[in-house]
Design brief:
Structural class: mainly alpha
Strand content: under 5%
Oligomer: single chain
Distance between the termini: 19 Å
CATH architecture: Orthogonal Bundle
Radius of gyration: 17 Å
Number of helices: 9
Length: 189
């Protein structure tokens, strides 16, 4: 029976479920990747558990993270989001999501697949690391720095190299389940 998990997992059931069923599972859907990157950006300065507990509300408040809808958000939407208790009420973070939706659509209009663009930073293959424990896991890598720079060149905000690396781990570009985690069976994937 699987019991031990990566050391960052608390005893909160939501966190346990996230670790066991979502974290490091490869995602290739462009809109899903957009949503997950936006949520990672919201985490800046906060714990991931805070974002997880509000994830449902984020999806409701941000129109399911559909870029075509978010790009149309106006001052009224900005006011609504600043008053929404279930999301992070930071004017800069709200503006970043609206801006990033426009950047995403710009790339799409140029014929760029967001998924292909992002997965290109790992040569379209999952990077499987075999860290003995969490003390070995980096907070950023050359690939996350490259991704961050490329996204910023496209106009994206809240996509620094640390955010990009957490995103890469979350969406399965990088498998950082440590070897002291019973879930490291994902290394065989």
């Amino acid at each position: 029976m699987l019991g031990r998990r990566c050391s960052w997992v608390t005893d909160d059931q939501l966190y346990i479920d996230y670790h066991d069923n979502e974290w490091s599972v490869p995602c290739h859907d462009s809109q899903d990747l957009f949503a997950k990157l936006m949520l990672e950006g919201q985490q800046a300065g906060l714990s991931w558990l805070t974002i997880l507990k509000r994830r449902h509300t984020f999806y409701q408040a941000y129109a399911g993270f559909v870029p075509e809808k978010i790009a149309l958000f106006d001052q009224q939407d900005m006011g609504r989001l600043l008053n929404e208790r279930g999301v992070i009420r930071s004017k800069l973070k709200i503006k970043a999501i609206i801006n990033n939706a426009k950047c995403y659509l710009n790339m799409k209009a140029q014929g760029v697949s967001f998924s292909e663009f992002l997965w290109g930073f790992v040569d379209h293959r999952v990077t499987v690391n075999r860290w003995p424990n969490a003390s070995f896991v980096p907070t950023q890598t050359v690939q996350s720095m490259s991704m961050s720079n490329a996204l910023q060149q496209q106009g994206f905000k809240y996509v620094g190299p640390v955010i990009c690396y957490a995103f890469m781990q979350a969406i399965g570009m990088v498998n950082d389940h440590t070897l002291d985690c019973d879930w490291c069976h994902r290394h065989k994937a």
